[in-house]
C-alpha cells in the first residue's frame, strides 16, 4: 500500500495498553517473524507491559519506538532497541513490525532510523538483529539499512524455521 508515512516516536511510560495491542497484533499477523508466540505473550500479566513501556520510555538501557498513523491512540508499528547487558558496545534490535495497512510508506525505515540514532547516541558500536531466513521484505529492509549477514544461524525456537544473525556498524 502507499500513503503518508506514520510518525515515529519513543514510547511513553503510560502506553502499556497500546504496546500490548501492537505487539499481540504483530505476533498474530506474522508468527514466523518472531522468536515468541501470540499464545505466550497474550498470557503475560499487565505488569509485563507496564514494565516494558516504563523501562523503555526513558533512560539509557532500552528504548521502544512506535509508529503512529491517523489514530493517535493506536500504534501501527513497533521496534525495540536494547543495549547488551554484558557489553555496552553492542546493541540489539527486536520486535520490528509494521501493520499491513502502513507498509510501503517508509514506516519500518523510519523505525530503524530511530533505533540506529538512539543506539548510536548510547555509545554502541554495533547493532545486531535476527531475521527468519526467507523473510524477504525484512531482509531487504535490513540490507538497505547497511546490515550484513554474519553467517550465523539459530533455530527460531517455536517452529522448524531458522534465523540469520545480521549486524551493522554504528558510526559515532
Ligand atoms: C519487514 C517490514 C517491517 C517492512 O515494513 P515497511 O514499513 O513496509 O517497510 P518500508 O516501507 O520502510 O519499506 C518497504 C518498501 O517500501 C519502500 N518505501 C520506503 N519508503 C517509502 C516511501 N516513503 N514511500 C513509498 N515506498 C517506500 C521501500 O523501498 C521498500 O521497498 P521493497 O519492496 O524493495 O522492500 C514489514 O513488512 C513487516 O512488518 N513484516 C512482518 C513482520 C516482520 O517480518 N518483521 C521483521 C522481523 S525481523
The major β-sheet equals: 7 strands, mixed
How many strand elements? 7
* Radius of gyration, whole Å: 15 Å
Q: Could you say which small molecules are bound to this protein?
A: coenzyme A
Mean pLDDT: 96
Give the amount of beta strand, in percent. Answer: 25-35%
Low-confidence stretches: none
Broad shape: globular
Overall description:
- The protein has 172 residues and is an alpha+beta fold.
- Helices cover 32% and strands 30% of the residues.
- It binds coenzyme A.
Brief summary:
With 172 residues, the protein is α+β, with helices and mostly antiparallel strands.
Attribute tags:
about 170 residues, seven-stranded mixed sheet, binds coenzyme A, alpha+beta, Aminopeptidase
Break the fold down into its secondary structure elements and pairings.
Blueprint: E1 7-10, H1 16-29, H2 38-42, H3 46-57, E2 62-68, E3 75-83, E4 90-98, H4 107-121, E5 126-132, H5 136-144, E6 148-155, E7 162-169
Parallel strand pairs: 4-5
Antiparallel strand pairs: 1-2, 2-3, 3-4, 5-7, 6-7
Helix pairs in contact: 1-3
The structure holds coenzyme A.
Amino acid at each position: 500500500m502507499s500513503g503518508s508515512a506514520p510518525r515515529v516516536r519513543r514510547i511513553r511510560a503510560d502506553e502499556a495498553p497500546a504496546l500490548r495491542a501492537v505487539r499481540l497484533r504483530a505476533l498474530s499477523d506474522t508468527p514466523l517473524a518472531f522468536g515468541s508466540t501470540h499464545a505466550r505473550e497474550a498470557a503475560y500479566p499487565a505488569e509485563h507491559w507496564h514494565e516494558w513501556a516504563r523501562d523503555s520510555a526513558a533512560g539509557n538501557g532500552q528504548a521502544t519506538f512506535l509508529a503512529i498513523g491517523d489514530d493517535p491512540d493506536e500504534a501501527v508499528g513497533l521496534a525495540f532497541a536494547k543495549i547488551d547487558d554484558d557489553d555496552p558496545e553492542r546493541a540489539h534490535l527486536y520486535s520490528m513490525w509494521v501493520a499491513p495497512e502502513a507498509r510501503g510508506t517508509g514506516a519500518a525505515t523510519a523505525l530503524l532510523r530511530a533505533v540506529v540514532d538512539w543506539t548510536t547516541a548510547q555509545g554502541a558500536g554495533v547493532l545486531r538483529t535476527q531475521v527468519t531466513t526467507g523473510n524477504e521484505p525484512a531482509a531487504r529492509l535490513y540490507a538497505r539499512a547497511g546490515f550484513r549477514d554474519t553467517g550465523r544461524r539459530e533455530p527460531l525456537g517455536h517452529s522448524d524455521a531458522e534465523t540469520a544473525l545480521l549486524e551493522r556498524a554504528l558510526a559515532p
